[in-house]
Amino acid sequence: MTFMEFLLANGDENLVRYLNGVDTIEPIPDAFFNPLYEKLKMYYVTGSMPEPVLMWTEARDVSAMQEALSGILGAYERDFAKHPNIREFPKISMIWKSIPFQLARENKKFIYKMVKAGARAREYEDALQWLADARLVHKIYRSTAPGLPVAAYDDLSAFKIYLVDVGPLRRLAHLAPTAFGEGNRLFTKFKRAD
């Protein structure tokens, strides 16, 4: 679900009409900026998964939304056990659980030793690739220079991983739904999660 779809699900057709009409880069008037800012924070809290969004938009039920996100995370984690090589299950799970910690640190790249002490890339790269192939994470390479095509400048030895959705990432990180109301304090803590 995109932000525009989230706005529509919330009944904010006027904000969608405004955004669809924006065709220049200029400051957004406060009359639109303030409600858009508040809706964007709620989009970050719920994420783009239909069930948590539905729990929020229809009932404004934060605990049901939290339960829906927990259910999604649980389903993902049960899927880890479906890996063809069952020995990879613990590695996949450890990488998955390390993502919030990895993003909260000022690392410039994914560090295998943060998954498990003494871990090496060769031991965990198949598990990480499984998460990427399952489309549960995005593997984003550091660029060595600005240029096109972007992939030509990827440093394949330096990357970060991100969950595909901010709602489950928030839930996996055990951040309360109120965390996005804390403004800059949250983004100071998670410096490299952007």
Keywords:
mainly alpha; 2 domains; two-stranded antiparallel ribbon; 2 strands; 9% strand
Give a verbal description of the structure:
It is a single chain. The chain is mainly α. Helices cover 54% and strands 9% of the residues. The chain has nine helices and two strands; from the N terminus they run αααααααββαα. It has a two-stranded antiparallel sheet. Helix 3 crosses helix 8, helix 5 crosses helix 8 and helix 6 packs across helix 7. The protein is globular, with a radius of gyration of 19 Å.
Residue-averaged pLDDT, rounded?
Answer: 90
Task: Write the H/E string, N to C.
Answer: HHHHHHHEEHH
How does the helix and strand content classify structurally? mainly alpha
CATH class of the largest domain: Mainly Alpha
- For the record, the CATH architecture of the largest domain stands as Orthogonal Bundle
| Topology-level CATH name of the largest domain | Arc Repressor Mutant, subunit A
The rough form would be described as globular
User: What are the segments in which pLDDT stays under 50 over at least 5 consecutive residues?
Assistant: none
Radius of gyration: 19 Å
CA(first)-CA(last) distance: 20 Å
Beta-strand residue fraction: 5-15%
Order of strands in the sheet with the most strands? 1-2
The number of strands is: 2
* Main β-sheet description: 2 strands, antiparallel
Q: How many separate helices?
A: 9
How many individual domains?
2
Helix content: 40-55%
